[in-house]
Fold this sequence. Notes:
The complex is a heterodimer of chains A (415) and B (672). Chain A is built from 17 helices and 11 strands. Chain A has 415 residues and is α/β, with parallel strands linked by helices. In chain A, strands 3-2-1-4-7-10-11 form a 7-stranded mixed β-sheet. The relative contact order of chain A is 0.11. Among the domains of chain B are: 150 residues, Four Helix Bundle (Hemerythrin (Met), subunit A) (Up-down Bundle), CATH 1.20.120; 165 residues, 3-Layer(aba) Sandwich (Rossmann fold), CATH 3.40.50. Chain B is built from 30 helices and 12 strands. In chain B, strand 5 and strand 6 form a beta hairpin. The termini of chain B are close together. Strand 3 of chain A pairs parallel with strand 9 of chain B, so a sheet runs across the interface. Chain B: GO terms for molecular function: translation initiation factor activity.
Amino acid sequence: MPDVHSLVNEFTIKLKKRKIEGSKTTAKQTAELLRSVISQQRIPHTNQAAALIDAVKAVGEQLIAANPVELAVGNIVRRVLHIIREEDLSLATAAIGGLSLSAASDDEDDAEQDDHPVLSAAAVAAAARSTLRPPSLQTLLEDVPYSAAVPHNSSSGGDSEGKSKSADKSSRSRKLKHNVIEAVNELISDIATCHEQIAEQAVEHIHQNEVILTLGSSRTVMEFLCAAKEKKRSFRVFVAEGAPRYQGHVLAKELVARGLQTTVITDSAVFAMISRVNMVIVGAHAVMANGGVIAPVGLNMVALAAQRHSVPFVVLAGIHKLCPLYPHNPEVLLNELKSPSELLDFGEFSDCMDFGSGSGSPLLHVVNPAFDYVPPKLVSLFITDTGGHNPSYMYRLITDYYSADDMVVQRRPAF
Amino acid sequence: MNKYLSSHSISSTLPNSLQLLCCSIQFEAVISPLPMDSRRNSRLIDPKMRRVGFFTPPPPPDRTQSGPPDSISPTDNWLSPVMIPPPRHASDNLSSTLALHSSRAVGMPVPPSALRRSSTENVPVGSYNPSESLLGTSPVLSPSSNMMDGAFSEDSANWIRRSNSGKFASSFPTGGLDLTADSEAKKAQGVSEKGEGTVVGVANDLSSSSKPQKEKTSKATRRALQESQRAAKAAAKGGVAPAHEQQRGKAVKQPSQKKDGFLATSSIAASEKKGGDRSQEKDRKKDMPPPRMQFDDKSRVEKAKRRAVVKQTEVRNRVELFRHLPQYEHGTQLPELELKFFQLDPMHPAVYKVGIQYLAGDMLGGNSRCIAMLQAFQEAIKDYSTPPEKTLTRDLTAKINSFVSFLIECRPLSISMGNAIRFLKARIAKLPITLAESEAKTSLCSDIDRFINEKIVVADNVIVRHAVTKIRDGDVLLTYGSSSVVEMILLHAHELGKKFRVVVVDSHPKLEGQALLRKLVGKGLSCTYTHVNAVSYVMPEVTKVFLGAASVLSNGTVYSRVGTACVAMVAHAFHVPVLICCEAYKFHERVQLDSICSNELGDPDAISKVSGRVDVNYLDNWANKENLQLLNLLYDATPSDYISMIITDYGMVPPTSVAVILREYGGEHLWI
């Protein structure tokens, strides 16, 4: 345990100091950290899943608090929680399936209730899938009352533990941890390979002689464009430099190295050039449940310009960027202000900044936000590793990856 | 305008002129041998002039000191710059000035109209001081110009300059001994003075020493006039002082091309009149803007290159979409141009200086560029003399054209500059043929002054007055880049004690907003600074957006610093009103829908570097990479539906009214 503790603390400090940035790296490292947390977690004989969930939640809360703007951390914590629930569920169903082959759907649900304090419709569906039984309309219809009653039963779930067979339990406890770690490994490899999966779809979206505009730099966008290039598409790319970090220069350099026709434009020229662009392809920082995008600063402007000229605005996002939260005032609440030194030379403007010292409030403010919020109506398409989706479909996609009761990870221990 | 005034104010100025007649007997010098009626005809058949006349502008500021303003104009009509061959004057000049006057009076017929000339006799001294500009020798000339024709006086200006360069003996015609001796004597002095770089000093020196010989009558008044003018000039030149040295160096060379200007100024009066009429027709055609040079047209580019003074080299990696716009390697031609400084005969030093400033990027902002260009043209006009066999109207237009093409080579013109050039050309074309050269030049110079004053300075004040009414306490005003008018508005509102906050939005690579920010914070305004990408972040708190413009096109499109469209678009998306502040002289009847057909390309290297950020160096060797282009657009076109209001000197109008303003106030009124 101390080992895990120090790992968690180290990671938390890194997050706090913004040593780790970028949703992909944070997501990967969070998943790895949670994997070690799970592997080192001692599991009681009863209610192992709950113990795992509690441990992950405790760590996850810490991590989320360290950098609330880095939504990928929260996403991964929720994903891991969801994995634990799913694995537990599938084990339970498998066990029951093994015990009574002719188990009725009612029995199955009883067993599930025992092991899962909270049970969602999604979990039922997943359980049904794991037992290789497609959910029939009948089961779905019959399940509804049970699922609705689930939160009610959850408190009384503990006493039904004894009903389960102990022999089965011991084998399940080892199996659960193993399965969860397997699944988390899968998640990590998913995060690592999400670029390729997104890039595979490139040829479906880019045609010959296309003109594409992008802003700033995103690994996903770069892989996407390069994949299309490798498949012998020839097209041109306008790269807006993405002040104040000027990551667009990096992207342009990479694209040119791969043989793409690249033109670097200033951010201010986006509106001028958008009328000659066929498609805007950008990366995202996070995708919210409503289909809105937390994106690198400047993209709202690009999206508005694209909408003005009816240019498709395509957002590439790995599924780890999918955040199950609905944003409220995300421009401010899910934003981060960076150092003014990226915009202004302190030495040059130190005299100006001194003016305020007399009056109490400084005369000069420098605003350097890191992110923009692009509302869903400005987004034409999301391309994730599972395919293309409409912004309005995002909420549904979220239920595939997250459990409804994990939405508020950080609040749970407060009760 | 002058012409019109002349035909209508004759009666009013006649008493004045009669009074002056008794003290000045030099008026005969300007009598032209042209028959009276033909001249009168030329004046009456011109409908355009008539129309113009009803529009009486206020007297330009620097004319006020040179006597009653209307006393200048009457004569404009009756003067022909090339009527009297200078050699004859010079020979007349031999003995003394008084003798000259009497002999001239006998030698020439004196039509009654010539009386009017007398009223202006003291005007040229005041408002016409062209040669004073560079060498400071003009004070010698200004007395002489009183007794001679305008053309001659200008020639003598050339002559003195040439004498400075050691050529005077060959180029100076017959007589003029006392003048020559005079200038000879002063030459050494003048040169030595020049070495010290005190132009005004030379001027003073020369004028004081030359005066006693020339005339005794109104010496004190003349002196006062000259002094005051010189002071005004010195003040005006204060800003461009560093270029003086270059100018002086060049001025010695420059006039050699005008050598033939006075050697044989034989009378070409007959052709002159026709030329004037034709030029008016041409002027009408000129109302349509000429098609812009398309740089993807290979043959035309080749042709233009052969003519070009500035040998620009094309940037290697061009953006395909912008082949029709010129893009040259930056910084390569500057040293070369500086070397060429002494060989550029046709280019006036003042124009040359402005051109180099454009090229080097020292001169930014539509208004300051336009004013600098106009002032350079003013200098050039002052030093101009019509070559023989040519008319001022046509030759000066050609000259201005060559200046303009030089400036275009340095940097493409802004639309406001194009408008100013059109105005100037229209004024030149409208000059009465009969006008003496000196008068014509005086009138042009004052026209330029008036343009600068009315269309830029006063217009800005009007705009500020209008715009300030839109600023309320508690406002958060956003501005983009650095617009001189917006800056004036913000500072004025602050002076009025309004409580507001300013958001200055800036963009790479120009970062003009920092200069604005420094000025605003220096005056104690509370400011927020951010870059154009973050405009969506700051927009929710903004209550109004004030933007400048390089031009407003007749379809309401605002053509302005690149990024303006982005800011206006975001403001529109957040339902924040967008107010464009633009002087009416920048309006243009062109229409434009995108920012690509017509634009200007800046230096692409500016993109690869970020000032103060050494860590951004990914694109250092971009030119070697075949597939990489950097596009540094300078302007963009903001669609009119993003714009709530355009604040101009005609008031606050919606963007749809720009076409109406152009139609109603366009042409003569818009360009004065």
